[in-house]
Design a protein that fits this description.
mainly alpha; 7% strand; two-stranded antiparallel ribbon
């Protein structure tokens, strides 16, 4: 899925990026000399070349160097601000750039303003399930699902595509529904962007070409590398691609984050009073992308943190809770509505009474959720344990079957041979999610049993 010329070296990327940033006002001070781009286990990352004092400015990207609808607006028709979301617009711009990079005869265009930065972005996302889902399809299947035009070559089909398709089928349920959501968001964005692009005049298109493979790579870059940035739109549109800052990798539980100012988007070393560790020589610059569990990290970003490492890992039990409530008739429906109203629906540690109290006792549920009371009743606590045990035992069996089928599939690949490194690494991440969810259920059941 590499769409551009061979990637430059890390040193070349860093040198060219700093040179480009220096062309902006105050851009010569955009990156502290104590910060260096290096190759890490996660790909590329930024490290401190010396010990750095607290609250030291490390990165200060001029707002004019950010890529978002505000900075793209002068380069496109004014209707784009109304017709496209930030994700759609940024993905379109980056995909057009990819097309231009393959054409050495392409004339210089004002849209090339951010080209030096955009060339630093990843050229492939082999560990993101969306990549597997698209590239495991034949060209005809791609044409049908994504309504590709004649002449669009589509995305190159993966070697052993049947194995990648099988890996998708053997994702845990917690990954499957998220993968479907990502897939649908991408497809909807592609169809809308092509519709907007196709009605532009040749002058407005300026000789640029929109192709499906370019858009997929662009969309994955935007989806994985944007940071929050208030552009005055709705929350989902307040995002930007940010040079240098986009190279900072994720670490769970950190508090230091990029900060938007009037002149720059900045990132500094942790304050003195912060619980984040100080930066010493060789320390990697990191920040938390958010309180995300492994299934979300895998389907959106293409990585996981692993068993016992991610404090946000949990097991989604909406379906199991809904089934218990369905047995309780109207009172069960009322309980579910309370949980939805109070934004508790979807959490792992739901307390689910299986008895059917009179409607008046629903007031106690509201008091419990509001923190006014710790329990509803001793009888209810026993019912909660029984319900959680029932759910846990059901999930324990379900996860056991799912993991066994997954391992049979993976071990079959190994026996046949020809399993590439990337496929095996992705399979190992999926196995990790299965095992982590099994561990969580097992420990919940053990905890319930110890309370007897």
């Amino acid at each position: 899925m590499t769409l551009s010329p061979p990637a430059p070296t890390t040193d070349e990327i860093w040198r060219d990026l700093l040179t480009w940033l220096s062309t902006f006002e105050n851009g010569s001070k955009a990156v502290n000399p104590a910060v260096q781009l290096v190759d890490t286990a996660a790909g590329r990352g930024l490290v401190a070349t010396t010990s750095i004092s607290s609250s030291t400015p490390l990165i200060q990207v001029p707002v004019a160097a950010l890529v978002n609808p505000l900075t793209l607006a002068p380069l496109y028709p004014s209707s784009f601000a109304r017709l496209l979301t930030s994700t759609q617009w940024l993905s379109l711009h980056l995909s057009l750039q990819s097309s231009r990079w393959r054409r050495p005869d392409a004339e210089k265009n004002p849209r090339d303003r951010f080209s030096t930065f955009l060339r630093t972005l990843p050229l492939e996302f082999p560990s993101v399930p969306l990549s597997w889902a698209v590239a495991a399809k034949t060209l005809e299947e791609q044409r049908k699902e994504f309504e590709l035009k004649e002449g669009d070559p589509g995305v190159p089909v993966l070697e052993h595509k049947e194995r990648w398709a099988a890996l998708l089928r053997h994702l845990p349920k917690s990954c499957q529904w998220r993968q479907v959501d990502v897939h649908n968001r991408f497809r909807n964005d592609w169809l809308l962007v092509t519709k907007v692009w196709d009605v532009l005049s040749p002058e407005e298109q300026a000789g640029d070409e929109l192709l499906f493979a370019d858009f997929l790579l662009a969309w994955l870059n935007v989806n994985t590398r944007c940071v929050y940035y208030d552009i005055g739109g709705k929350t989902s549109d307040n995002l930007t691609l940010a040079p240098v800052i986009d190279m900072i990798n994720h670490k769970d539980g950190l508090n230091t984050t990029p900060v938007a100012g009037a002149l720059a988007l900045s990132f500094s070393s942790p304050p003195y009073a912060s619980s984040d560790p100080p930066l010493s020589k060789g320390s990697e610059l990191l920040f938390s992308y958010g309180p995300h569990e492994d299934p979300m990290l895998l389907t959106e970003y293409g990585f996981t943190l692993g068993s016992r490492t991610n404090a946000y890992n949990s097991v989604k039990i909406d379906d199991e809770v809904a089934a218990l409530f369905a047995k309780q008739g109207d009172i069960g429906k009322a309980k579910q509505q309370i949980l939805e109203d109070e934004s508790y629906w979807g959490l792992l540690h739901l307390r689910i009474p299986s008895s059917t109290p009179p409607p008046s006792s629903l007031e106690k549920w509201y008091d419990l959720l509001a923190g006014v009371r710790d329990t509803i009743s001793t009888q209810n606590e026993k019912a909660v344990k029984a319900s959680l045990t029932e759910i846990g035992e059901k999930l324990e069996e379900e996860f056991g079957v799912g993991l066994r089928k997954f391992l049979e599939m993976r071990d079959g690949w190994v026996r046949v041979g020809g399993v590439g490194k990337t496929l095996m690494e992705c399979a190992d991440m999926v196995r990790g999610v299965w095992k982590e969810e099994s561990r969580i259920v097992e420990e919940v059941l053990q905890g319930l049993e110890s309370q007897e």
